[in-house]
Amino acid sequence: MRAAIINEDGHLRVEEVADPVAGPDEVLIEVRAASVNRRDLLVRNPPAPNYVFPRPLIPGSDAAGVRRDTGEEVVVYPALNWLGDDVPAPGWQLLGGPQDGTYAELVRVPVENAFPKPRGWSWEEAATLPVAGLTAYRALFRVGCLHEGETVLVLGSGSGVSTFAIQLARQAGARVLVTSSSRDKIKRALDIGAERGVLYTDVDWAAKVKPVDLVFDSVGTSWRDSLQALRSGGRVVAVGATGGPEVTLDVRQLYLNWLSLRGTTLGSRRDFAGLLEMAETGNWRPLIDSARPLAKVDEAHERMLRGEQTGKLVLTLDADG
To answer: pTM for the complete prediction?
Structure first.
């Protein structure tokens, strides 16, 4: 099969490699489309020990394709060894490190990780769901406890996970505000359901959106402003640290205003089933920045590194890819 391989030197090359072999209770998925996540870049150039995996390695956690044994059209749940519906036990993993991932014509997964593809969705659309969509779903509903009629502020509106958060929150009947450093990205957010946006480069941007019930924060270094934007008793859900891993807080701001700061990543199979149900019943589709064949995976990585994308970057796999 063809696959994009991270070699010892960190370069990503499309090569012919041996087909994976499914073990007991596993299936092979013929990948039709995969999508790119920031984790793929971190696995390629590890900033910390938890991203260091043996090489050569096939990265990628997102995929939609066909079950080789049954011919069913499926989307891949990306977590391995996530047991139960709550916080996973130590030792859970994502596809794409250390186990080979989805930047390939075939991927090996546990049979319970193959979920029916949402009806009417293209391969490219379905492939965007696993990591970004699942992270947004769990953060908003299971952890953030978002309800109809509430107001949610989504930070960094151009990323894949943030665009999913906008669309899912709107489907649930919430009012959505966004931040970005780009007026163009704010406009794209308004096009998919946001009501209003502010530039986070502006002084006191938090005061311009306050009070909100929930902040969806994938930046990390923005926690101080996120807390400032909340109403009394509001909550921040942290899902990432694109701005950096450290932040300084005034603890009094937290307890004197009855605020909550909650963290989450990815989600359980039950969460994934809930996401797919919303996908089937909603009238939206994922915001796809661009799609390109697997052979041009480096272009997708470079676009993400430069922060140019709005929505998801997709890789297609077909006879010409």
So the answer is: 0.95
